[in-house]
Each structure stands twice: as C-alpha cells, then as structure tokens.
Design a protein that fits this description.
0% of the residues lie in helices and 43% in strands. It is an all-beta fold. A hairpin with a 5-residue loop joins strand 5 and strand 6. The N and C termini lie far apart (71 Å).
C-alpha cells in the first residue's frame, strides 16, 4: 500500500526595504509594508506604533532600525536599516554691493560661517546660472534681480 502526504513549505516574507538610507537633517522616511500580518519595529521608542506596517520616521541623527515581520503561515524575516542623516548646508555670504547703476558689477562669495557645502550654484532666473565658490557678474539692465543660491552637501 502507498499513502501520499502533501508537504507544503511556505515562503518567508520578503521585506522591501533598502539596507541603507541617506537623508538630510529634518527629512522623513516612510515605509508601507504589506508582506506579513505582524510587524515589530525597534527601537520601540522611535515609533508611535511599533507594530504598524506603516511607519513615518524623522531621525535626529544616524540610526539603526530593525524590522521583524511574520506572515500568516508563521514564517519570519528580519531586516536592519541604517539611516545616515547629513547636516543641512549653511549658506552665509557677503552681499555688497546690493544696488548700483548699470553696468553694475556684483562679486559675492561665501564667508567663513558657511558650512557643509560641497557645491554652490548662484542663480538669477532668466539671466544666468553659475557654479562655483564666488559669483562675479556684470548686470547691464535696470531692474530688481532675485539672487538664488543652491548649496549641495554630500556629507
């Protein structure tokens, strides 16, 4: 006599998170998981509901997070997430002269209190865009110019 038994092996939940996230200070991360029926985020103190599959998290510094997930068959998976928080660039520059008659030459540069800047772009929309530490530009038309400064930090 032969008897047959079906054996079922269920999958572990696959947790769709990256192992490392790099954000700027003040930014948030959000995860919406749908891979299990129980969730456990840690450290527990960082989350309003550490058992929820939906989490929004605004770290104040570099942090390591763990997530444990169990699916309906009792299979478990874990993941560790490293969150690196970069400082926001600090822009301080000397803005003299701010007015004059055309042709008006402007030369602006960062001063010593600027920080966390790897790339700097000076922009007057519709006029020019310049990438560098110092802006030196001749303005030949009358008007009010809106100078924008974009600072990028890769720290």
């Amino acid at each position: 006599a032969i008897d047959t038994v079906n054996i079922t092996v269920y999958p572990h939940p696959e947790i769709p998170v990256d192992p490392v996230y790099t954000i700027c200070e003040g930014e948030s991360l959000m995860w919406q998981l749908a891979v299990g029926n129980t969730y456990s985020w840690s450290p527990v103190s960082l989350f309003a509901d550490p058992t929820s599959p939906i989490q929004q998290f605004t770290p104040t510094g570099d942090t390591s997070i763990s997530i444990d997930v169990q699916n309906v068959w009792g299979c478990q998976s874990s993941a560790t997430i490293e969150v690196n928080v970069n400082p926001v660039p600090v822009i301080n520059f000397d803005a003299e002269p701010t007015a004059g008659c055309p042709p008006h030459e402007v030369t602006y540069s960062l001063n010593g209190s600027s920080a966390y800047i790897d790339e700097l772009t000076w922009i007057i929309p519709g006029e020019f865009q310049y990438t560098g530490d110092t802006l030196n530009e001749m303005l030949s038309s009358t008007g009010i110019y809106n100078l924008q400064i974009l600072a990028i930090s890769t720290e």
